């Protein structure tokens, strides 16, 4: 059985070590892409929820492609205990740095490949100025500093507006309609990066992610924990998209093979439009708990159409039904979670 097939057939994830291994296992497509990728790779803002396993996947892809001489470097403040050591143990060099501090970018090493991951979402309400500095001002500085590099930059599906739940969601070519300071600042990031890409000839890709999930964090964990705790499930944002974080990692790294100026844009999410009600009812069945709902489903939701990325990179290895089953199993056996609600249910763009 191939690695791809074994991941798709998972019945249970044993522990955090196996989970991190699965999230960072490079697909054959990633290994092929990294065999052709010249030079070292820097991750800016590596210490978030997705960064560590993404950086480890990159390290493993270089090694599998016979390019072990390539450096993978992670830059972050590393305010959470253990994250820097975790990366170093896996062959990723680390640099402690606050990217907003004057002079910081100039002191970072050169590299021909950059993944830009830093952002501010939670706590944006009440800290609007810092949100715009992180999400729009800093990306412009990064692009100027690394004008001779190739850049893959994370964005978000929050740059879109709410779409009818009867459709597939927003396409990359749809005009943005962000709601709230966070979404608007992320659109600001995209506009600044597009300007720098055009003006400086920087090959780029923008990754509009919506939403990556794993067993410790994400929309499915939010819903599963509510059902397990007997809490009421709000139906206002009654539909959503989700993708296994390991698949989102793989699509992000494969984007290095599809850079352009102006930037190529990819919606990265799963192909399904998922119903909050149906997902919660499935969790209730799997967890042996009743489920209570509040409110009613709106006719629209924040949804993204990922057919472009799926056409290029292939479908996610783990579908939504399997993700729900794996999440329920993890919660039932008391697996750790990050205890960071996604607030995906917010319809007013306030996070």
What's the short story on this structure?
This protein is an alpha/beta fold.
Stretches with pLDDT under 50, minimum 5 residues: none
For CATH, the homologous superfamily is named as NAD(P)-binding Rossmann-like Domain
The separation of the N and C termini measures 43 Å
The largest sheet is: 7 strands, parallel
Q: Strand tally, please?
A: 15
Domain NAD-dependent epimerase/dehydratase: 66-209
Pfam family, one: Epimerase
Protein name: NAD-dependent epimerase/dehydratase domain-containing protein
Keywords: Plasmid
Question: Please, could you describe this protein's structure?
Answer:
It contains 13 helices and 15 strands. The chain has 351 residues and is α/β, with parallel strands linked by helices. 40% of the residues lie in helices and 15% in strands. Helix 11 crosses helix 13. The protein has a single domain (3-212, 245-270, 302-316), classed as Rossmann fold, CATH 3.40.50. The chain has helices at 3-8, 16-23, 28-35, 51-64, 83-89, 104-107, 128-145, 180-200, 219-229, 245-254, 276-287, 307-313, 320-332, and strands spanning 41-44, 72-76, 93-96, 113-116, 150-156, 163-164, 204-209, 212-213, 232-234, 239-240, 243-244, 264-268, 274-275, 292-294, 300-301. The strands form five sheets. A seven-stranded parallel sheet has the order 3-2-1-4-5-7-12, sandwiched between helices. The radius of gyration is 19 Å and the shape is globular. Residues 66-209 form the NAD-dependent epimerase/dehydratase domain. Keywords: Plasmid.
């Amino acid at each position: 059985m191939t690695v791809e097939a074994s991941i798709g057939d998972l019945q249970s994830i044993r522990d955090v070590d196996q989970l991190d291994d699965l999230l960072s296992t490079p697909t054959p497509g990633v290994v092929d892409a990294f065999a052709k990728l010249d030079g070292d790779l820097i991750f800016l803002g590596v210490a978030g929820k997705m960064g560590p396993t993404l950086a480890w996947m990159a390290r493993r892809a270089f090694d599998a492609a016979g390019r072990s001489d390539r450096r993978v470097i992670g830059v972050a403040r590393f305010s959470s205990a253990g994250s820097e050591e975790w990366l170093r143990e896996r062959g990723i060099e680390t640099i402690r740095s606050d990217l907003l501090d004057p002079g910081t970018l100039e002191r970072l090493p050169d590299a021909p490949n950059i993944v830009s991951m830093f952002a501010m979402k939670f706590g944006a309400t009440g800290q609007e100025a810092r949100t715009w500095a992180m999400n729009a001002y800093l990306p412009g500085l990064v692009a100027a500093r690394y004008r001779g590099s190739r850049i893959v930059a994370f964005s978000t599906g929050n740059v879109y507006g709410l779409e009818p739940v009867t459709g597939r969601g927003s396409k990359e070519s749809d005009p943005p309609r962000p709601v709230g300071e966070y979404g608007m600042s992320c659109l600001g990031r995209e506009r600044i990066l597009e300007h720098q890409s055009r003006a400086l000839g920087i090959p780029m890709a923008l990754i509009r992610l919506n939403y990556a999930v794993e067993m410790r964090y994400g929309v499915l964990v939010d819903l599963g924990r509510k059902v397990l705790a007997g809490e009421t499930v709000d139906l206002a944002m009654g539909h959503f998209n989700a993708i296994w974080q390991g698949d989102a990692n793989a699509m992000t790294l494969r984007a290095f093979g599809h850079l352009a100026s102006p930037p190529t844009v990819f919606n990265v999410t799963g192909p399904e439009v998922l119903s909050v009600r149906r997902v919660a009812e499935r969790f209730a069945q799997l967890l042996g708990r009743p489920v209570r709902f509040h409110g009613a489903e709106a006719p629209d939701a924040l949804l993204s159409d990922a057919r472009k990325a799926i056409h290029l990179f292939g479908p996610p290895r783990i579908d939504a039904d399997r993700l729900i089953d794996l999440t329920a199993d993890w919660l039932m056996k008391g697996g750790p979670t990050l205890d960071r609600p996604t607030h995906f249910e917010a319809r007013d763009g306030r996070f």
